[in-house]
Design goal:
The chain is mainly beta and about 180 residues long. It is about 10% helix and about 55% strand. It starts with a strand and ends in a 10-residue tail after the last strand.
Length: about 180
C-alpha cells in the first residue's frame, strides 16, 4: 500500500510504502522506484537508512540489525562497497574498505579484549595478513596522497546481501 506523492500517475516525491510482510519504506520515490533518501524497515526489524537508486541501497547509509550490529558507510548495488565501519553488538569493530559486500583492502579491527586497533589487509572478506606498526607508518606516508584515502575524501568475514559471517568466531552467525 502506497501513500504519497504522484507525478503523471507514478510514485514520485515523498511517500510511504507498506508491504504485507510488515516491511515499510518511508522516503523519496522517482518514476515508481525507491530513489533518493529514505528509511526501509524489514518485517524482521532490520533497518537501512540512507541513499537509494532504482530500489537498491546505493551511496551512504546505515544498516542496523535487530541484535544491534551496525554498518555505517558506502553501498553500491545493494552491497557494502567503498569505505565503511561494521560494529558487532559486543563492541568489536572493523573499519576499512569493502568491495562487493566483503571486506577488501586495508582495514583495521578493534579487539575488545585488548582494547586496541590492529591494521590488516583483507581480500574478499578474509584477512590475509596483519600489518605491524612500522609497516603501517611507512604505508601511511605513501597512502595519504591517494584519492581513495578517506582522509582526502572527507567523506573476520562479511558476506553480501547483509548476511553476516563473523570472521573471529567459529560459529558463523548467519542472518
Amino acid at each position: 500500500m502506497y501513500e504519497g506523492e504522484y507525478k503523471e500517475g507514478k510514485k514520485c516525491g515523498k511517500g510511504i510504502f507498506k508491504w504485507v510482510d510488515n516491511s515499510v519504506y518511508e522516503g523519496e520515490f522517482y518514476n515508481n522506484n525507491i530513489n533518493g533518501k529514505g528509511k526501509y524497515v524489514w518485517g524482521d526489524k532490520r533497518i537501512y537508512e540512507g541513499d537509494w537508486v532504482n530500489n537498491k541501497m546505493e551511496g551512504q547509509g546505515t544498516f542496523i540489525w535487530p541484535d544491534n550490529r551496525k554498518y555505517i558507510g558506502e553501498y553500491k548495488d545493494d552491497k557494502k562497497d567503498g569505505y565503511g565501519t561494521f560494529e558487532w553488538s559486543d563492541g568489536r569493530k572493523y573499519e576499512g574498505y569493502w568491495k562487493n559486500g566483503k571486506q577488501n583492502g586495508k582495514g583495521k579491527f578493534y579487539n575488545i579484549n585488548t582494547q586496541k586497533w590492529k591494521s590488516g589487509i583483507w581480500i574478499e572478506g578474509k584477512r590475509e595478513k596483519w600489518i605491524d606498526e612500522d609497516e603501517e607508518n611507512n604505508n601511511n606516508n605513501d597512502n595519504d596522497n591517494r584519492n581513495d584515502n578517506p582522509k582526502n575524501n572527507e567523506k573476520n568475514e562479511i558476506n553480501d546481501n547483509n548476511k553476516i559471517f563473523d570472521f573471529n568466531d567459529n560459529n558463523n552467525n548467519n542472518e
